[in-house]
Amino acid sequence: RVSHRLDLSKAKTPELTEIDLTKAFKTELNYLHQAMVLFGRYTCKAVKPNCKECFLNEICKSKDKIL
Length: 67
Fold this sequence. Notes:
There is one protein chain. It contains three helices and no strands. It is 43% helix and 0% strand. With 67 residues, the protein is an all-alpha fold.
């Protein structure tokens, strides 16, 4: 969800999304994964994302954006 909202991947499956992210972020993937999980849990939530507090608000392309 987070990678799609930030336009890092347009893949339709988790496996293809992982391939896109691996190509874009070649190193430190374990840190990227953990950061995206926590970011999705506390800021970029599936229901009622916290867009007003998000530091990536300006680059977010989400149709779910709430300002």
